[in-house]
Every structure is written in C-alpha cells, then in structure tokens.
Design brief:
315 residues; mainly alpha; 2 domains; two-stranded antiparallel sheet
Length: 315
C-alpha cells in the first residue's frame, strides 16, 4: 500500500525543481506592482520601479524546500522497509524546515505545515507494548502514510498558498508600495491573507474530500480510516482541530468564522481530555471517532459554503 500511495504523491508533485524555479521567475514582478500578481483574489498592479526591495530569496526558500521534499519522496519510494521510509520522510521534513525557518519578518505557511507534519509523526506512537511486533510494524506503516499525506498537503496546497498570496502580500504591498502608482485596482483585497484557505486545506488533508485530477476527479480518501486504530486517529484529530482553529483566528474574517472556531476549539479540548484518560464526554473510542469525523466535516462544509456566524458572541 505504501508503494502505491507514494507513487501517486510523486505524480502529484511531478513538476521538476528547475521547472518550478522557472515558473517562479516568469511570474516574479519586473517592477514592484507588476500586472497580474495575486494575493488571494488577484488583480492588476501598477509599474512603480522598486526592484531593489524585492526579496527573491523567500521564493527560492519555498522552491528549494519543495525540491527537498520531492527528493525525499523519491528516495522513500525505492525502499520496501517501512522503518527506513519513515526515517527518510521524517528527515525530509527536518531538512525542509531548515530552508524555510529564516526570519523574513513574517511566518511562512510552509514552515508551519512542516512543523505540523513532524508533530503528526511524533503523535503516531505509544499504542504498542514492548514485544508486540505486529502492532509496532503497523504503527510504522501508519506513520509512513501520515507523513506521505503531510507531504501531499505541503507540496500541493500549502506551498502554493505561500507563493500565490502570502509572500506577495508581505513582499510587494506591505513592504514595497510607497507611492500611489503601485496600487492595484482592487487594492482592498490586497490587505488580507486568507488564512481560512489554510484551515480548509488542513481539514481536507484529514478528511480527503477534494477531487483529484490525477485520479479522474475522485478524492484521495486515505485518512482518517487508514490510521489503523482509534488511538492514533483521535490523537491526530485533536491536533488537526486545534491547528485549524488557530489558522482561522488569524484571519481578518474571524468574526464570521466564530462558530467554526468555537466548534473546533470545543472538539480539540474534548479530544484532549479523552486522550488523557478522561471519559466524561465520550463513552468509548467508537463514539468519539464517529462524532469527531462528523464535526470536522461540518466545519469544513461551513468554510466552503461561507456559512458565516452571527449567533456566537462577537469579538
């Protein structure tokens, strides 16, 4: 199962390192406000000459981190031993983190996603007793799958979010625009970063509902079912719900997301209590799993359908 899934991920990330760099070069503004530069919703900029302020290193950091992750995926594909695959994929995330951890004056979403991938890997442990070889072997295979899914999230969802609007927001307009001629026509949309997109991508990473072109439009539904046990699933879900709520809290539209944020916070706290041995909210793991999947799907649906909140206390 690991070989087949990793092959799919390699195909998803098939654009080469050099091609990705050329794409970035072609899209990089020749002046401060080059036309067509997108932050969230897109628009047209002016032609102010501010090239000396443009920091291409940030784009190269994301590009190089993507290359490191793709190479790690390729190496893991050729190893049939799950323990070795887990070590390769874990090290790939650590190497990518080095490339995106510099202080640019703002935090890259890619850096955050890499740290979350490492946290998920650490979470998949502790269910097996010493000597339970079958359990330990299954634990490693579950970790490989979760790591591969984390790679898919970073390469295909999070890096594009950074490249398309998080970096341009901070580099072109927040840092560069010092005159009227570089204002885009839809300038108001340039003063926000859509963290809700990051939260939605994170929830879909767990639920696997997005259609995949490489699969003929079908979703790649592996998690949470393939996590192998309720023990792992509930611990991963605890973190997913906490991280999604944190992303939404950064968004300027957080009041509209107040209901979703509250639901995710409540779910995360409930799962934390259950995972620490307090069964006052869920009578058993089966009930907890069913409730958790439904709650996360409800939150994702609310975000996608823009079901904005009015009933909860306002900030």
């Amino acid at each position: 199962m690991n070989f087949k899934f990793l092959t799919i991920l390699a195909l998803c990330a098939s654009m080469s390192h050099s091609a990705f760099a050329q794409t970035r070069k072609n899209n990089a503004p020749k002046s401060l406000g080059s036309k067509g530069a997108d932050i969230g919703k897109g628009g047209t900029g002016g032609d102010a000459q501010k090239d000396d302020l443009y920091n291409e290193d940030i784009y190269y950091a994301c590009n190089n981190a993507t290359g490191v992750l793709k190479k790690a995926l390729a190496r893991a594909l050729w190893y049939g031993q799950p323990t070795k695959q887990r070590a390769i994929l874990n090290q790939g995330l650590k190497d990518a983190y080095v490339l995106v951890s510099s202080d640019y004056g703002f935090s890259l979403l890619t850096k955050q996603a890499v740290l979350r991938g490492l946290e998920i890997d650490r979470t998949i442990s502790g269910a097996c007793r010493t000597g339970q070889e079958d359990c330990l072997e299954r634990e490693v295979r579950v970790a490989v799958l979760a790591l591969a899914q984390s790679y898919d999230l970073i390469i295909n969802k999070v890096v594009p979010l950074d490249m398309d609007y998080n970096i341009p927001y901070h580099q072109k307009y927040a840092s560069h625009c010092r005159s009227y001629d570089c204002l885009p026509g839809d300038f108001a949309s340039r003063f926000l970063v859509r963290y809700a997109d990051s939260a939605a991508a994170l929830l879909d990473f767990y639920l696997g509902t997005d259609p995949r072109p490489e699969l003929g439009g079908r979703p790649l539904r592996l998690l949470p079912e393939a996590l192998g046990s309720d023990y792992y699933e509930l611990r991963v879900a605890e973190r997913i719900s906490k991280w999604a709520a944190a992303d939404l809290n950064k968004d300027l539209f957080r009041r509209a997301f107040a209901c979703v944020i509250a639901d995710l916070d409540i779910l995360s706290n409930s799962l934390e209590r259950y995972n620490n041995g307090m069964n006052d909210e869920f009578p058993n793991s089966k009930f907890a799993v069913i409730y958790t999947r439904g709650a996360l799907l409800s939150s994702l649906t609310s975000l996608r359908q823009q079901q904005w909140c009015s009933g909860y206390p306002r900030y």
